[in-house]
């Protein structure tokens, strides 16, 4: 068997739920693996219905030509961002590195198999997204057989280029950061510096379009995608290939994907061991222990500090969970200089007129998408991993451990949430009542996010993982938190804002919403007591 | 014949701190070579460079006449490495893991079956090979890692603290296998803190202190009338 295929097969088997179901006698493990399969199956089903529905609708109403660009654009963006956030952990932070590197595999095979693992992981949702769109496109647009074949074949190449760009950036960051003493902090800062501007690229693109070609641009999300696809080469080539059977576009996708893959891994494999060696270097402090180092703390505070150290000790943890906190600060500063109406309209994807309403109360709802998207509490218990025995063997009340972890999440997200809220109140000249309501909302959603995250984190604890990225990005607990929280926030939060703006009673609806979140926070917290021992 | 030859090996951390400084040693065919030193002395750093896991700054390391930097694959084909805390694929079964290792070394079906069956029996884990590695104890994982290391009959077996976590029976079996390997012309290079085991098991020993080799040679010549423990403690005592 080819070494690359052997490595890939092994890593896929070792991380698959199916292997657990086939070989484990542990009932709990089996039921968790089953739950994982069903849970992700359900998410993929929702994704398929949603994208298939959009494609069908567009095709049916005569916009079939714009359809191929939609999945291609989403696949480009998602492949890029998802890979960027997990590449460091998959390429550099894995436990079997020593074992694999000591075996007769070429460095290129080892490192490219890690990339292919990410590729196949992405391919699951790429196929769901692309093929469900294709089904909608076939039913609504009646394309030719050749278009369908081109669509199917090119789907497998669509994620390659954005993933290679993300891996290149991650390797570059790894290479630069490896030379520093405080590598984790440097790597995280470099990632933030690079990623945060990318979040604003969308607004920049839309702004450019609106300023230069306002008459040509039709509002609406479908057109936004078709416009965006013009900026993304792979999406444009995919559209041209499917719509016009453009041979050059097909060749470009094939040739660039394969050449870039070969060239990148040929070069990267030359530096890979050096980067890993540098990253594994540890620096022991020569400083002597001081009196202050013996400071006694409460159990809760001690766990909180331990969690902070765990957080700052992991690039994956900091970049994925901490991103929301950094974005809140950026948002809080930006709101002082940017037209809020324009920004909120851009985020909502439609024109929103906030004149005459308490606009400062809309901002905390938006900020919650940063501070409450994934709390540290959702993954912190699972991240204990093999160290969980320490918690278990110490004479600790589990509730104190949970309180410590929750306290860390509050320290991480509440100050930045309050900062963004206060900035919005200053920028929008909010009345004292609005300030109080906005602050109450920010505090209650933070409490809810913390307690609910902890609840799902404890209920869905996974201690045996190969790579912490499995927990932080793909963990059961994170998925169990993310979906209800995201949809809940969009429905309840969006509903409260819409109702408040429509009837000009925003302080009342946001006040009620705060009370609801407080109630949910208390409910989650009281349920946590079940896990105390 | 020299199976492992380290010459002037130097590894620097952070630009100026030398973790290993001008290390020279040679492991011949048939040697059981013990590598001892305090925690942080440079044992694992040397071992990781030998097995091609870590880059280094100066010097050369040769395995069976091949340079580990220039002919990495040739070296790895004849070497087996067992780290101090083997991180195996937790969600593979023992047999899936061993098959993966056998595939990597291109071992035939008959040979792998014979070896895995034999070693699994000797280490007493034949019944557990169908279970997931995540359900194993530390010692069982260590045993699977050892079997994986032996599957391709390496010329050089490199181990970092191999006896930690092994039960007495397994430790005895491992020592027995080390002797068998050496009788067949292979060599064993391992680090340990268990000095009485090193004294009884090894024919050669090197002591490393703050990255420098401070003693190196045949056990009987190094210790004379003393015990290895006495010699070691004297050697590593700070001036």
Short characterization:
With 533 residues, chain A is an all-alpha fold. Chain A has 24 helices and no strands. Chain A has two domains: 3-7 and 17-280, no CATH class; 298-528, no CATH class.
Written account of the structure:
The complex is a heterodimer of chains A (about 525) and B (about 240). Chain A is mainly α and about 525 residues long. Chain A has 24 helices and no strands. Chain A folds into two domains: about 270 residues, no CATH class; about 230 residues, no CATH class. In chain A, α14 packs across α20, α20 runs antiparallel to α21 and α21 runs parallel beside α24. The radius of gyration of chain A is 24 Å and the shape is globular. By secondary structure, chain B is of the alpha/beta class. Chain B has two domains: about 160 residues, 3-Layer(aba) Sandwich (Rossmann fold); about 70 residues, no CATH class. Chain B is built from nine helices and ten strands. In chain B, β9 and β10 form a beta hairpin. The longest helix of chain B has 16 residues. Chains A and B meet through α1, α2, α5 and α13 of A and α2 and α3 of B.
